[in-house]
Amino acid sequence: MDASASQANLTSTFESDVREIVTAQHVRTATAGDAVRGVQPRLVVEPGTEQDLAKVLKLANDAGLAVIPRGGGTKLEWGNRPRRADVILSMARLDRVIEHAWADLTVNVEAGCSIGKLQEALAKHRQRLALDALWPERATVGGVLSANDSGALRLRFGSLRDLVIGVTLALPDGTVASSGGRVVKNVAGYDLPKLATGALGTLGVITRAFFRLHPLPRERRTVSCKFAEVAEAQRVMLAIQDSRLAHSGLQICCGTEMPPRVDVLFEGTEAGLAAQVEQVKGMMSGETISEDGDVWNARQEIFSTRGEADLAIAKFATLPAQLAESIEAIVRLAGANVRWSATAQATGIGWMRMEGAEAALGEMMKAIRAGLESNGGSLVIVRQPVGIAGIESWGSVADALAVMKAVKRQFDPRGTLNAGRFVGGI
Amino acid sequence: MESRIFDELREIAGPRGLITSREELHTYECDGLTNFRVLPRAVLLPNSSEQVQRIVRVCHREKIPFVARGSGTGLSGGALPVENGVVISLTRMNKILEIDFTNARAVVEPGVINLDVTARVAGQGYFYAPDPSSQSVCSIGGNVAENSGGAHCLKYGFTTTHVLGLEVVLADGSLAHLGGKTLDAPGYDLMGVFVGSEGTLGIATKIILRIVKRPECVQTLLAAFPSTNEAGAAVSDTIAAGMLPAAIEMMDNLAIQAAEAAVHANYPNCGALLLVELDGPMAEVAALMAHVDEICRKNGAWEIRVAQSEEERALVWKGRKAAFAAMGRISPNYIVQDGVIPRTELPNVMREIGRLSREAGLRVANVFHAGDGNLHPLVLYDRRIAGQEETAEGLSSKILELCIAAGGSITGEHGVGEDKKKMMSKMYSEPDLETMQRVRCAFDPLQLSNPSKVFPRPRLCGEKAGEYVAHPLETAGIAERY
Q1: What pLDDT digit, counting tens, does each position of B5-25 carry?
Q2: pLDDT band at residue B470, thresholds of 50, 70 and 90?
Q3: Which chain A residues have a beta carbon less than 8 Å from that of B372?
Q4: Which superfamily does A219-296 belong to?
Q5: β-pairing, A258-268 with B247-252?
Q6: Of A242, A270, B302, B418, which one has the greatest count of Cβ atoms within 10 A?
Q7: What is the average per-residue pLDDT within B287-295?
Q8: Which CATH class is domain B96-213?
């Protein structure tokens, strides 16, 4: 029997075992729409319980099949092209808000629940997960955690690592393990919620999570201001950071046809906001001060497609005081051939899109990455033209890679989960 | 340990960087939890990352377990030496290496004292937010190991929130950089796991911290309630009203008496005292403070004061921060616990603590970080009375079991260390603990870095069945292979 026939056999045995567990209606043959960066899986399985999920994962692991967990499928392009893909493990049915302990400001939620559905449930008690994730209507708790996706609110409330207080993971060997719990303050044992956050599902499948919550703000105000130069925009941004204002968000947006604009978000009581808005206006030396709250979707707009053939999107990290320098480097490298836009937060995290000829985009991403890494930053590419000879998505992790690989071996020794999608070939 | 190893270690750390005399070693036999004592074989006092690396390489080669130690103020026996092991004290690595105000970062060595970071940046209006009660003596390296909290972590978060990057010496002596000055370094958040790992994953030798701008205004309100029930209700109402104070602290009558006796904080003599601190823009704080005042009155507060000056505020906090040490004024001995409960369970848990206290015939004083449900029950006893220490320990464990039953944790900020590792099995299932130990095996397969802490039983780290060789701990029946 040749290798591919043996593989097909394995899959069919696996398939019938899986049907036993999740029933036939929750197993289907994968279609072209299920491909991950062009790699075609064979099956899509939708377990209905955490136990079933763990059983399916273990079966796949035992059969040597490669598994890709999937929530809303909004960020499947992130990460390297998978080495192998056999089974899509869909979280669609694990979508309950298990318990909103509103008086304790915590929530326990299944990983397949969308952020939008979660926020809706929390809003009934005027609370929220203080996180502005991409595509909240579709993105799930597990996916957002695995991709470590956070937006402008991070400046005030921290990123997912600061909001998640407990996770339950299903490991490839069938182990179901919890770490952390329902209390905000807890130092008992290792902080596995942080390990799972941003691990792109390469260590285990997140099945449930506990989050700390924040009250919905009583009022919100946004102040925006346009500048001629990005250096000037950065100067104002740093001055706001160095002030005693209590802003919730602070970003710079700019692009080929868009002069730099600084947006500041305030949340709080009416009295507190009025004074702060006045103060910040005094600090905004640029032209056109507007108070249009509709600027906080800038990050999501970076991803909007208008049918461009050649498009690259990346997340970059630098020091707050080096944002202008990083953006100027983008301008320089883009030249006349690449259209670009970027939105960067005062935390030093930014997002950029580039449209242009394939080869130019490839060169540009490499050059930007080299520049950022030389200053201790990073560039993570989340979309690149299919045609170019794929640039590694993550960049360098230097001397921490050996331990990362050791962690992966401990959790997923057979490389079942998201094979090759993570840093250093993990 | 053979003399050639001592010679080699002396060569690395210098003659004054190696302690081997029995008298001097006694200084290191315990940390802030003094009922566990182990004399180490030697204490090393390196003054650079490179020296730490070289020492650890020797330990790795010779299979000598090592325990890193900061100021030794920990309350769970995390820095307790291990039999036949060495202690690596980081106190000589006490330099603040860099302050970058523009990016709000500070780079420090592990022996730097917590409060010294704030002292260094205060002139520019910044502070380092995590503020454990021991902040005037505890080290940043120790804070990293324990993921220390403090009164203000309700709003500002824990040590882990404020650590951006680490240089660590791994158990084989190699150096690794986790996180960095920029956020979201690609790869696993190993820094997130390292912080709070209680010295079991290696030794942090350089720490990149976030510093925070001081808020425009800070106000502290002190309210006297008939009992902890009313005070607890006021806490719940404050949170339910959508406020996130910088700190909410509670003390019961016994704790108030002790604090008064020790530092004369001028606290009212009441059933429970609530201390609520709000910070932020002036107008915001004024509006919210009025609301907190109203909530306290509605819940039966009979005296409310707002600290009017920085001196008054400092005095209010002095009483709270001295509360543990103050117990010496009212009891010869005491055990501090560090349980956490969902805030809403407070009345039930307090009632149960009262019942257990009466049953055991021992007094329990209570000091809480009430905003985040972190309790510090202090079980008072007299070691000179036969059997009382055992009764106190039993009571203390029962209180932690109450916390677990309420859906909480056995430790909010003091760590598991040696003290609470047996309780870990009550809080976590076997697969939970086994999974955590996979991380341990990835970092330190020989388990040399602070072994025998945190976990009730060590997990051996054989990766491949073919290479199986019985570990000495295993043949001795101390550990088992999973």
Answers
A1: 999 999 999 999 999 999 999
A2: very low
A3: 183-185
A4: ACT domain (3.30.70.260)
A5: unpaired
A6: B418
A7: 95
A8: alpha beta
B472 CB burial (10 A radius; 0-12, 13-18, 19+) = exposed
Q: Which residue of B has its CA nearest to A315?
A: B184
pLDDT for residue B467 is more than 60: no
Q: Does CATH place domain B217-405 in 3.40.462.10?
A: yes
Contacts of A411 in chain B (CB under 8 A): 435, 438
CATH class of B3-89: alpha beta
Measured between beta carbons, the chain A residues lying within 8 angstroms of B280 are 246, 268, 272
Share of residues in chain B with pLDDT > 90 (%): 83
Report the range of poorest mean pLDDT among A6-15, B130-139, B153-162, B282-291.
A6-15
Residue B132 contacts A where some CB pair is shorter than 8 Å: no
* Mean per-residue pLDDT, A351-370: 94
3-state secondary structure (DSSP) of residue A235: helix
**Among the listed residues A337, A380, A343, A371, the one whose alpha carbon sits nearest the alpha carbon of residue A355:** A337
In chain A, which segments carry CATH 3.30.70.260?
219-296
Interface test mutation site (partner A, options B146, B158, B183, max chain A beta carbons within 10 A): B183
What distance in Å separates the CA atoms of residue A181 and residue A157, rounded to the nearest whole number? 19
pLDDT in tens, B204-263: 999 999 999 999 999 999 999 999 999 999 998 998 888 889 999 999 999 999 999 998
Q: Is the Cβ pair B432, A399 closer than 8 Å?
A: no
CATH number listed for the domain at residues A299-399: 3.30.70.250
Q: Between residues 204 and 233 of chain B, which touch chain A (CB distance below 8 Å)?
A: 213-216
Residue B173 in contact with residue B54, Cβ under 8 Å?
Answer: yes
The answer to which of B162-166, B213-217, B255-259, B466-470 has the lowest mean pLDDT is B466-470
Domain ranges of chain B: 3-89, 96-213, 217-405, 431-475
Contacts of A18 (CB under 8 A, 6+ apart): A27, A43, A45, A56, A59
Exposure of A418 in the CB half-sphere (CA atoms within 13 A)? 26
Using CB atoms within 10 Å of the CB of residue A137, give its burial: 0 to 12 exposed, 13 to 18 middle, 19+ buried.
exposed
Q: Residue B479 pLDDT more than 90?
A: no
